[in-house]
From TrEMBL:
Function per UniProt: Catalyzes the formation of N(7)-methylguanine at position 46 (m7G46) in tRNA.
Entry binding sites for S-adenosyl-L-methionine: E66, E91, D142
Family: Belongs to the class I-like SAM-binding methyltransferase superfamily. TrmB family.
Organism: Mariprofundus ferrinatatus
UniProt name for this protein: tRNA (guanine-N(7)-)-methyltransferase
Gene that this polypeptide is encoded by: trmB
Lineage per the UniProt record: Bacteria, Pseudomonadati, Pseudomonadota, Candidatius Mariprofundia, Mariprofundales
UniProt binding sites for substrate: K146, D178, T215, K216, F217, E218
């Protein structure tokens, strides 16, 4: 199977170069993966000038977002275990988007999903309405371990408050990480965020959901001796 980098034409069309983001943007894909991206992104993609409200989704179905979906393993799991949910995937790494699109397509769930390659902050601010989401998942976000890079971590006070505004009453935020310092960072910020209740109690972590799959990143951590911790918050 021949692997190649995404073509310049494709990257120019789908990567928002004017928006500063941290992390990888380009990488290797197969010819078939790029072809399926070209087929599906015009149908299920959310370009920066399009709102989720204009994405032709049934109004009554629960709307759940995964921020940083990687290669799509968890998105497929959510689609398979929650057939009534509509899913919104947020991921800036296009080769990951390519793999996710192929997996969702192969599983028959692709039309229940909308995908954006824009930064999560922009997506929530400009593409999602207030009280529009039923839930948000953030699995194994980049830990940015160096202190000078902590400002790059996705969970910050302002971002936490923004997520709350986009959730319906009773909506949830679920997070996972195998980095203890990041787990405590996220917990401390979210515990202090008005409008959120920690299901495990202030300072607590929940047990692993029984049906939760081991993602690629979690498997990597297990091999290196790290155990994941899980957080669950509900909007009052």
């Amino acid at each position: 199977m021949r692997r190649m980098r995404l073509t310049r034409e494709f990257r120019d069309q789908y990567i928002q170069h004017e928006m500063r983001t941290h992390g990888r943007k380009n990488g290797f894909v197969t010819v078939g993966q790029e072809a399926r991206l070209s087929k599906w992104l015009p149908r299920i993609g959310l370009p920066k000038d399009k709102r989720l409200a204009d994405a032709d989704l049934p109004a009554a179905a629960p709307l759940v977002m995964e921020i940083g979906f990687g290669n799509g393993d968890f998105l497929v799991h959510l689609a398979a275990t929650h057939p009534d949910w509509l899913l919104v995937g947020v991921e800036i790494y296009l080769p990951g988007v390519a793999k996710a699109v192929c997996r969702m397509d192969d599983a028959g769930f692709i039309e229940r999903c909308r995908i954006t390659q824009l930064p999560a902050q922009f997506v929530l601010e400009h593409q999602v309405d207030e009280a529009q989401l039923d839930g948000i998942f953030i699995n194994h976000p980049d830990p940015w371990p160096k202190v000078r890079h902590h400002k790059r971590r996705i969970i910050q006070k302002a971002f936490a408050k923004l997520m709350v505004t986009r959730l319906k009453p009773g909506g949830f935020i679920k997070l996972a990480t195998d980095k203890p310092d990041l787990a405590e960072w996220m917990r401390d910020i979210l515990d202090a965020t008005p409008g959120l209740t920690n299901v495990a109690g202030v300072g607590g972590f929940i047990e692993r959901d029984e049906d939760r799959p081991h993602t690629k990143f979690e498997e990597r951590g297990i091999k290196e001796g790290r155990i994941s911790q899980f957080l669950h918050y509900v909007k009052a």
